[in-house]
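Blinded run. Sample ID left blank on purpose so nobody reads anything into the name before looking at the predicted structure. Input follows.
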Amino acid sequence: MEKGYRKMTKRKLSKLAACAASMLLAVSGAAFAGTATVNVGVSANIANNCTVGNVSAIAFTYDPIVANHSSPAVATGTIDVTCTSGAPWTLDLDNGLNNGHVTLSQNRAMNSGSNYLSYDIYSDSGHSTVWLSGSGKDVTGTGSGAAQTQTMYGQVPAAQNVPAGTYNDTVVATVNF
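Blinded prediction complete.
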């Protein structure tokens, strides 16, 4: 009986192996019968973009009688420009709301009611380059992808005889890119 069992088992195993082999051939033949390829394009369009923000105002303290009788008042403010990496930019400051009421040789004025106090904003700490719209002396740079802080150097000329009050102006900053 042992011999007969072995024969039968061998036959079953042989048939099972042949069946598995033919199935494997059928499956592998179908899976690897040929290949086809295609290229898939991948792209991204990155446009130049800029923002301006994080402004700290230029806030003067002006005393026409003592401190600023013979010396100008100076103050600074900052503005951040953030542009796409590699994007060239220009930061323009307009002439403010009261530039028609300027006295002396300044380009801008703050007002308190009908009273005006002349001032200017410069792009350098030596107050030699007026940062003025349309002057061709705007601040320029190239974007880094991070905020780039620009300092605005304000100056109110000495000896302006104006009444006490709170003087204000609004200057619009525009980044061109």
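Unblinding after everyone has recorded impressions. The chain has a mean pLDDT of 87.
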